[in-house]
Write a structure and sequence with these properties.
63% helix, mainly alpha, elongated
Length: 141
């Protein structure tokens, strides 16, 4: 059989076909994840998006800690404290929502369903706008 007649494989050789490959629970991946393994490029793209949400989450948490450290420079110290708490809580929420979105997309790809709507971007946008309003009020007042 020539290479031109070889059927296209959507997974790396030996990845999904290996019955000894075990997931984190000790069971084979075929027993824990529904559906078929999607093309690895889509899985990796989904993981990169998840890691971007984690980076955003860590940046907001670090920003919240920095805001709290410099709270004394504002005339009203409670405003940067509220902004710091908002930033760190928003960072934690984004990390949780990012994982939830990664998992929902992964399952949808495995089942061949349409991708779910993006909810994390709405939360990030609303949180950053609220954070900007609080900090602007802190500078003005």
């Amino acid at each position: 059989m020539s290479l031109l007649c070889t059927p296209y494989r959507s997974v790396a050789p030996g990845f999904a076909e290996n019955p000894l490959r075990r997931g984190p629970s000790g069971y084979s991946r075929a027993m824990t994840d529904p559906g078929e393994e999607p093309d690895y490029r889509y899985t990796l793209a989904n993981e990169r998006t998840f890691l971007a949400w984690v980076r955003t989450s860590l940046a907001l948490i670090a920003g919240g800690i920095a805001l709290r450290a410099f709270a004394e420079q504002f005339s009203r110290a409670w405003i940067p404290t509220i902004a710091a708490v908002t930033a760190t809580v928003l960072g934690g929420v984004i990390a949780i929502l990012g994982y939830r979105q990664w998992r929902r997309i992964q399952i949808a790809m495995r089942l061949g369903q349409p991708l779910p709507r993006q909810t994390v971007a709405v939360v990030v946008t609303a949180g950053v706008v609220a954070l900007a309003v609080v900090l602007t009020l802190g500078v003005i007042l």
